[in-house]
Amino acid sequence: MILYHTKVKKLPGTSYSEVRNGALAVYNLIKAHTKRKPYVRSSYFKKQKVFLDFFWTHLFQKNHRERVRRLKFFAAAVELIKNSRNHPVTVENPHKKGELLHRFAGLTKEGELFYAQIKEDRRSGNKYFMSCFPQE
Q1: What is the pLDDT of residue 47?
Q2: Per residue in 39-75, is it b (16+ CB within 10 Å) or e — as a string?
Q3: Hey, which residues does 99 pair with through a beta bridge?
């Protein structure tokens, strides 16, 4: 797997509220460009839309400590989705047969490895940014 080197650092902060404010600032900039669902266009998927709203519902299924850990990589993951042309690891979702999971790998400006996962609905072709997380 080829890594994409982002130009963005991890979001700063130690508490959830500090990290959330930084992530929401990035999200609100993207949200301001559309009247409907916020999205970014992905270079890998030939400039198709990747919707970002699913990320927040998935994030709130995690515990408090895990939320902070994942939110720190939000800005880097958005840049990775926008600009990466590297091939992801693609597998069929074991829980739903009609979905594909694409996992992109990237490095932050500090050199930390993280992953961004995108869920693709096979029937409609829609893509949803699902999660971002550091290497275990």
Answers
A1: 96
A2: bbebbbbeeebbbbebbeeebeeeeeeebbebbbbbb
A3: 121
Determine the pLDDT at residue 54.
93
Q: Which two tokens stand for residue 40?
A: 């970014």
Residue 130: C-alpha distances to residues 13, 52, 81, 104, 111 (Å): 22, 8, 11, 12, 23
pLDDT score for 1 = 75
Q: Do 82 and 33 meet the contact criterion of CB atoms below 8 Å apart?
A: no
pTM of the model: 0.93
Write the DSSP assignment of the chain as a string of letters. Answer: -PPEE-S-PPPP-SSHHHHHHHHHHHHHHHHTT-SSS-EEEETTTTTEEEE-HHHHHHHTTS-HHHHHHHHTTHHHHHHHHHH--SPPEEEE-SS-TTEEEEEEEEE-TT--EEEEEEEEETTT--EEEEEEEE--
Per run of 10 residues, the mean pLDDT along the chain (length 136 residues) is 92 93 95 94 96 94 94 96 95 92 95 96 95 91
